[in-house]
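Sorry to interrupt, but I need a hand with the structure work. Could you write out one complete protein record for me, on any chain you like? Just paste the record in under my message, thanks.

. . .
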Amino acid sequence: MALTAALISTLAIASAAAGDRLLLCRPQIAGDPALARGEAVAEAGRSMSGRFLDYGVACEDASEGARAAKRAGLAYAVTSSAQGRSEGTRYELALADADTEAVRARRVVDVAPGVEAVRPLQARDAADRAAAASDLSGWVRAKRDWDRYRTLSGASLAAGGAAIAAGVAWRFAF
């Protein structure tokens, strides 16, 4: 299952506040498990380039997460819960200090039912907006955005390929 942009931004705020790597507890699931989409929290953490150490299990509360973080040698833990409801999924995340076991920050994120939990790629989103445009000016704006995102994507791919080629050449030439 995909992750929510809101969860990523919440985890990014937590990680920026801490400055170090954080322990990420899996969420406690409440309500309808099929609607809870608890794996989105772990996916959001994985998408953040190693900022989180996945604990792999749910923590009962912020204090348990803080104690687990302390055992792992980390300063902070993020604990969470995912509640599956007919009106959508509610995620509650808490940032806990490993030394004091106190909650430093808490955030609630609601995701509406049927909303794809991942934001579409910007180029795909722009293409969809162009296809769904009801007037010419909306189509032109979306098409312009789509062309710009495709160009940026191609340039990024070329730069990445050049960096890999340079690294391989450096490795075997020197």
About this structure: The mean pLDDT is 79. The longest strand covers residues 76-85.
